[in-house]
Amino acid sequence: MQRTKIEWADYSWNPIKGMCPTGCWYCYARRMYQRFGLDAEIRLDVDELMADFPKKPSRIFVCSTFELFHPLADPYRRNVFRHIRLTPEHTFIILTKMPERIDRLMPDNVWLGTTITQQNEASRKADLMKHEARIRFISYEPMLDGLDPAILNGLDWAILGRLTGHGRRHDPEPELIEAFIDDAKIMGVPLFLKDNLEEICGEDAWGEPLIQEFPIEG
Question: What pLDDT, on the 0 to 100 scale, is given for residue 25?
Answer without folding.
Answer: 63
